[in-house]
Amino acid sequence: MRKVWDLIGGVHPPENKHQSVKDSVGELPLPKKLIIPLNQHIGAPSKIMVSIGDSVLKGQLLAEPKGFVSTGVHAPTSGLISDIGDHSIPHPSGMSAPCITLTPDGKDKWVEHEGLKNYRDQSPDELLSIIRHSGIAGLGGAGFPTAVKLSPEKAISTLILNGTECEPYITSDDMLMREHPEDIIQGIQILSYILGDPKEILIGIENNKPEAYAALEPHLKNTTTELVAFDTRYPSGGEKQLIQILTGKEVPTKGLPSDIGIACLNVGTAYAIYRAITFGEPLISRITTVTGEACAINRNYETLIGTPISHLLKNSSFNEHACSRLIVGGPMMGFALENLDAPVIKTTNCILAPSEKEFPSPVPAQACIRCGMCAEACPASLLPQQLLWHAQSKNYEKLETQNLFDCIECGACSYVCPSNIPLVQYYRASKGEMRKQAQEKISSDKARERFEFQKIRKEKELLAKQLQRDARLKSAAEAKKKSGAEEIIQAAMDRVEATKASPEDQQARSSRRTARAEDQLNSAQKKLNTLKKDATTNQHEQAAAALEDARVRLDEARSVQGSISIKLPPSMKVDPASAAIEKAKAEAANQANLSSEEKLHNTIQSLTLRLEKSIIRLETAKTEGSENVDVLTTASNKLEEKLAATQAALLKIKT
Amino acid sequence: MYDIIIQNPLYSALLALAGLSVIFGGILGFAAIKFKVVGDPIIEQIDSLLPQTQCGQCGYPGCKPYAQAIADGDTINKCPPGGQATINAIADLLDVDAPSLNSEHGEESDTRTIAYIREDECIGCTKCIQACPVDAILGAAKLMHTVIVSECTGCDLCVDPCPVDCIDMLPVQKGLSDWKWNLPSSVGEQLLASKPSGIIASDRSGANTR
């Protein structure tokens, strides 16, 4: 007898398993429609391979795995793809998700498929590929793609098969172990081969399933597999809990069982792997328990994936009015389902339709009385009370330090709480919020990175532009230095000079213009003359207007010619300075020619004029009260003196 | 040596203290240089709390500049995308009272939006590409542009520059992957909402008078 460890904490609610194990696993008639969600597993949704109107055979691939953590989806029966679109799925949110709707043709005709006669001839990788493409995901409840679980980074020393099924009411694994023990063992052999034949292979089973134990035991004789039974206590079927019960080892926080060399799979998964490898049958059906007092028939059914839950209930004589609420999964970890059209998926192990008596409406929660029963019940050794305070105050940092993410959401704490506090709901909500925050943190970090990168890029661009501009300036300066700026300007000015018309040209042009205007005038005159005899007044007026026009033009031309001839000095360029000199010279010559008496006369005249002007200026200055009055007075006095002196000189000459 | 110390206790004590201060001073001086903190870590800490939408609603050209401004003494309630949660977090970090959001800078919104370009109407002017602070718009001159949904922060900065108004800010579709459980209503709320039969008499009278 193997040593088993005790489960930490846990509870023992009424098992209520006997109702659904009375009958063997039943078959259901084909439903009218099968709704197959694309994402029945943890990971990326599968990629659709069919389109509306396609007819498919049983087992045909409908959607292939997309990405590493993904798996395929197959047609559960032959029929027609009637719709691809959103449909409600069994999910606590009650939301819709992309689904393929298949209308069965009733023939249930298999696609061509072939199993492997001897799987040991194949490499484990090839077997993993088959498992992946057979759409096998963990059938225990989480739906983690099995192929991913079977490709651990570390070597596996212990393979554990989970036949615990600790949650009340659910009996699907129990029935599977009773009816297909040999197939499960075969599946375990395949798993063992894929994982490199681990030292230990254990099947964990609670001691409330003696029939299953008895069914499995005879098939283990020639194998290394060990069947271990232990006390019934919820949640011994949790992966981490089962590992602890069977091996005494604890999976590290935030770690995986493979970190301590353990792989843990559900017995249903082992069965599905056996079917896939040995017969080439993909995962298209599973055993689902339908139970609860609201159903007259409580039993297990071999259910095609995609069967509407309403179809299952209809075949179990479901009484809607007697049902308090419909639950998918078990009473501890399941969730209420709103829409009965939602289908059975790979992880749907139980449909629970309890009566009001079985499952009364939850009583209002009362204040925590700090009794500590939750801490005793917690299988993960957490402090549910502390977690509750922090969850209520949304103190996520504290929740993190209290290891909220080690909570397996088993619901044992809520079950024992005398105040009926929905503890698990607090933890789930907080976990969701923390995950969301972590996600936001990642995306905000990405945004920051991109923002900063853009800033750097823009600075670089600016710098590059500046460098370019500098380089251009430099090269321009060099070019300037080389050719010499003055020379360039001079050359440009020369060109302008050259294009300017010379005065002779201008004159010639204007004379030509005059001549042309005269011609026009003459011809207009002639025209007018010829018209005079026989012409309408209109023509007459026109001719007169033309004549007038020509005359104006002639006048213009003449005036231009005149102005040019006036403007034109004999020499082309006249220096103003030399002109002034010439003028001064001429004046000096004039002066020399004059007699001294005349000279004095001229001087007196000019002086008289200047005096008059200065007196006028003085007057205006006086009236305005200017400061220059004194200066102007002396200036006019001086002029008067000068005038008097000149007049005296003139008198002298005369005499 | 021992004799000298015995004979001059005062001087030897002073000498010993002086020697110790030189040694420790040397260690401290070395540590100050060796372990010098480059930059202002508080800015980084504030920046990590800001939502990184880079929307500029605070009046600064991005989250980092606003973090810098907060470190220099600006008020902490200028970030509408972060909302009250961010204000509380920064107040917690800086150990100050958390003010409510300054509505001058905008209102807090529950629904996250991202930009969507109506591609048929896009004329390919690249103006939105230049406006995007996180390079989340893809396109080239005279060619259609489109928004990389996963990179868009919903900052609105691309909407105004668009000459043909072909950019919409659409709320992010909530899917199964975003779904999360809600917190249960508090004890008081449950009492108010529940049927009287579910609670004891004294509670019921309290609930009715409330």
The CATH architecture term of the largest domain in chain A is 3-Layer(aba) Sandwich
Structural class of chain B: mainly alpha
What is the fold named in CATH at topology level of the largest domain in chain A?
A: Rossmann fold
CATH class descriptor name of the domain at 41-105 in chain B:
Mainly Alpha
Helix content estimate of chain B: 25-40%
Number of domains of chain A: 4
Approximately what portion of the residues of chain A adopt beta-strand conformation? 5-15%
The average pLDDT of chain A is 88
DSSP summary: helix tally of chain A = 19
The name of the CATH superfamily of the largest domain in chain A reads NADH-ubiquinone oxidoreductase 51kDa subunit
Describe the structure.
The complex is a heterodimer of chains A (655) and B (210). Chain A has 655 residues and is an alpha/beta fold. Chain A has 4 domains: 18-352, NADH-ubiquinone oxidoreductase 51kDa subunit (Rossmann fold, 3-Layer(aba) Sandwich); 381-467; 507-567; 594-654. In chain A, 47% of the residues lie in helices and 12% in strands. In chain A, a hairpin with an 8-residue loop joins strand 5 and strand 6 (73-74). Chain B starts with a helix and ends with a helix. By secondary structure, chain B is mainly alpha-helical. The model of chain B is unreliable at 203-210 (pLDDT under 50). Among the domains of chain B are: 41-105, 3-methyladenine DNA Glycosylase II, Chain A, domain 3, CATH 1.10.15.40; 113-176, Alpha-Beta Plaits (2-Layer Sandwich). In chain B, a hairpin with a 7-residue loop joins strand 2 (137-138) and strand 3 (146-147). The chains are: A alpha/beta (655), B mainly alpha (210).
Topology:
The complex is a heterodimer of chains A (655) and B (210).
Chain A: E1 26-27, E2 34-37, E3 47-48, E4 55-56, E5 61-64, E6 73-74, E7 79-88, E8 96-104, H1 124-133, H2 146-149, E9 158-162, H3 172-179, H4 181-194, E10 200-206, H5 210-216, E11 225-230, H6 239-247, E12 262-266, H7 267-279, E13 285-291, E14 299-304, H8 309-314, E15 327-328, E16 335-336, E17 350-352, H9 373-377, H10 384-392, H11 396-401, H12 412-416, H13 423-483, H14 485-499, H15 503-531, H16 537-567, H17 576-593, H18 596-624, H19 629-654
Parallel strand pairs in A: 1-14, 9-10, 9-12, 10-11, 13-17
Antiparallel strand pairs in A: 2-8, 3-5, 4-7, 5-6, 7-8, 13-14, 15-16, 15-17
Helix pairs in contact in A: 3-5, 4-7, 10-13, 15-16, 18-19
Chain B: H1 2-7, H2 9-34, H3 41-49, H4 63-71, H5 83-94, E1 113-117, H6 127-131, E2 137-138, E3 146-147, E4 167-171, H7 187-193, H8 201-209
Antiparallel strand pairs in B: 1-4, 2-3
